[in-house]
Specification:
By secondary structure, this protein is α/β, with parallel strands linked by helices. The chain is built from eleven helices and twelve strands.
Length: 296
Amino acid sequence: MDWDKLRIFHAVADAGSFTHAGDTLNLSQSAVSRQISTLEESLGLPLFHRHARGLVLTEEGEILHKAAKKIFGQLAVIEGQLADSRQLAEGALKITAAPFLGSTWLAPKLGSLREKHPDVQLTLLLDDRILNLSMREADAAVRLYKSEQPDLVQRHLTDIRFHVCASKEYLAKHGTPKNVKELREHVLMGFPENVPAPFADSNWLFRVSGVDVSSSSNIIMMNSLYGIYEAVQAGVGLASLPDYLVRQTPGIKAILPDLERSPVGMYFVYPEERKHSKRIAVFRDFLLESIEETKF
């Protein structure tokens, strides 16, 4: 099988169209279509159903796509290992982290990393989904839970503490809850069910307040802690927020100081096979230095 055509097929299957794959591969739509047709002719099988709204893999195409994804994933792993063997703090480094953590803590500190290591080409993927590090969806992760995968190295970085918070404007208008029971009289914000959450027990506030999520009209849900933080800041309602965010936002105040959820552990995680990577070591050191500057 022609490797170049397999590479093009893999890009088309991921993109779902010849045009989008062509943009990724820097090829024209006609050139991509011609290569796929040639591949189908050589195999004697159709790989895509052509529709006006795009491409759909045939059953045979699904089989080939799974194989191609595995092959190119392994090639990416080998490429990373070869780059690691140079023992230089240079080249591409892809890190995944929870969106709120990346936006409010990591991103503002990246200048110091750039100053010390300008040859590291950093990509920061802010996603609550769990990306597969073994298949090089990312090189390493800053995660807010302890991984159970035996092939991953993980280092506990710190614990993030949370308290119930509201804006000073909201409290002036609606009053300050004096106990847990009074929380139910206020607008409470949290995560929807069945969506990726950045950490376990993300709806701790709903649980501890005893609010009936299914029937209460004082509930607002969104799948973004950063969005919840912005809503709290705007005076929409109450939410459980990280202490470090509250400290850097003068308009937000923690209430019921004795009411505190279990701290959320922060971990730096990467594949065992990448333990000699200079780029990963550099980013780990950057995280440790940044944590010393932040009171979580």
